[in-house]
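Field log, afternoon session.

UNIT: design team B
ACTIVITY: writing a sequence onto a fixed backbone
BACKBONE:
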């Protein structure tokens, strides 16, 4: 997955926006003001931090060398994934969607319905 593909995929979700609260080099992808992905799109190797269910986060870290505890984030709820090709793009897309869904699930019901994610 390239940086442009990562950006496009993250922005493809309903009401997703890109913000730069940590400086111009860090893209923060948000929904309803809540972060679901964080990446230095110019970094090498390309990495993305994603929200994750705590039990799933540990399982992913054990199963994949490319998945580590979230860098500068709550390590119980966030993983940092290195996009070095060791994980299939399909898996990476699923992890991003799971992160988006976890954030949306924490929103008020009216907001979830507006996003068509009851």
């Amino acid at each position: 997955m390239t940086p442009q593909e990562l950006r496009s995929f993250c922005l493809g979700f309903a009401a997703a926006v890109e913000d730069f609260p940590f400086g111009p080099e860090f893209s923060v992808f948000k929904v309803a003001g809540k972060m679901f992905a964080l990446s230095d799109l110019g970094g090498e190797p390309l990495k993305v931090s994603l929200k994750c269910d705590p039990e799933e986060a540990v399982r992913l870290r054990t199963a994949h060398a490319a998945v580590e505890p979230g860098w500068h984030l709550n390590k119980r709820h966030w993983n940092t994934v290195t996009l070095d090709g060791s994980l299939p793009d399909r898996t990476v897309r699923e992890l991003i969607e799971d992160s988006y869904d976890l954030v949306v699930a924490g929103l008020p019901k009216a907001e979830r319905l507006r996003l068509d994610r009851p």
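LOG NOTE: The two ends are 29 Å apart (CA to CA).
NEXT ACTIVITY: expression trials, pending approval
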